[in-house]
Every structure is written in C-alpha cells, then in structure tokens.
Amino acid sequence: MKTVFHKASSRGHAHYGWLDTHYTFSFADYYDPGRIHFGMLRVLNDDQIEGGGGFGRHPHDNMEIVTIVLEGELEHKDSMGHTLVIHPNEVQVMSAGTGIFHSEYNKNSDIPVKLFQIWVFPDKKNLTPRYDQMIFDPAERVNRWQTLVSPAGTGKLWLNQRAWFSRIDLDESSSAQYTLNNPAHGVYVFVIEGAVEAAGIKLEKRDGLAVSETGSIAFTAMKKSEILVIEIPMTVKDE
Question: Structural domain of residue 148, as residue ranges?
C-alpha cells in the first residue's frame, strides 16, 4: 500500500471577497508540481461563496465535473438550457465534453453556500455534453457506504470514467472497510468533518489521503465523522 498524506493546512488558498476557497491540487494561482493530480482526479476545490456572489458564465470542455453542496443553495445555468438549484445532500454531474458554458451563483444574498467541486479526466474526449443531479438521503450513509456517482451503466448518477464517489457518516468508534472495485485503482480519502484513522493514518477535518496499490482501506472514527472517498483509475490503462 502506498499513501500520501495532505494536511488540510497544506492546501492552496485564495480569498476573493465573494469566494473563500482551498485547493487540494494545483489550480488557478496555486501551483505545486507535486500536487497536479492523483490519477484521473484533477481538482478537489473546497469553496465557500458569499451571499450574492458566484462564478459568471465561463467555458469548460473535456472534463467530468462533480459538485457536492454541503450548506446553502447553488444556482446553476448552462448553455444546454438548464437553470437549476443544487441543495445540501444533492450532487451534480456535468460532462463538459465538446464544450459548454455555465454560471454558478449563491442563490441567497444573506448566507454562504459551501460546496466541493471535483474534476475528473474523462475516459474519452469530445463526448456529447450532459447534465444530471440527484438528491441522496443522508440516513442511508450512516455507518455504511452510500454510492453517489459511478461509471455509466452501474448507477443512477454516472460519469464518463471508471470512477466511484462514495460517502459515509461514521459514529464515534465505528469502523468500516472500503473495498475497491478495481485493485489497480487509487482512492482519495477526504474528511469532510470529524477525525478518522484510515489505512493506519490519523486524519482530521479537511485532511486528504491518496492511497494506491491496495484492494481495501480500513476506517475507524475517532469521533463522529463524515468521509468522502473517490476511487479513480491511476492511468488510462487501468480498465
């Protein structure tokens, strides 16, 4: 098993007034040659958008974009004709493919919206753009894995990559094991809240751990914790 630990405080950080953001991997003005990506996982941004703020209309192409809202409401508009609001416990998947334009704004003027935006390299380029979103019952991830996103043909919310996004809310002293769908893959562990031991390493809020060359990962919660796991091909030849 190989592991690379990313302390929360080691992430890139930017504050633009309307946006307070932390970058796990190199992004915008933050550049670390040792943290460009982890396998096919390119971006994991931890964003807080203040009331009334947001990202104006801008383009994307050839990227699978997953947005997970933690608090508040995010309004999305795109060139495919969608105008939708993403709420807590909802997940959005957007395949940029041959190219799309979209904007993302805090729907409320008085409270921030907190979210993760995650980019994954697609398994093929120049695909037809697509959009989907789905709500997930948090009761279904208490001390058990809840699959949020998976490859096409394996679940309701899917993306164009052999990748799985899973969440679990562990009670204090509870344990769980994540078994990889493909042992050639890597797993990026991200602690949303709490403190856990994962693969024998202690992680706290917003710490990350890149794990590879293993078939499973053991977790034990040192206190009540929320965990996001992203299983990802390490190369385009993993599948």
Answer: 138-232
Measured distance CA(51)–CA(18) in Å, rounded: 8
Cβ atoms of residues 69 and 87 within 8 Å: yes
109 found inside a domain: yes
d(CA 128, CA 25): 27
* Residue 171 DSSP one-character state: P
Q: How far apart are CA 73 and CA 207, in angstroms?
A: 25
In tens, the pLDDT along 178-193 reads 999 999 999 999 999 9
37 and 123 share one domain? yes
Statement: the pTM of the whole predicted model exceeds 0.90: yes
DSSP structure class, residue 231: E
Residue 204 is part of a domain; what is its CATH number?
Answer: 2.60.120.10
Regions in the chain scoring below 50 on pLDDT: none
Integer angstrom CA distances of residue 70 from 98, 211, 237: 29, 24, 33
What is the chain's length? 239
Show the tokens assigned to 47.
């964003």
User: Which of 94, 111, 135 is the endpoint of a domain?
Assistant: 135
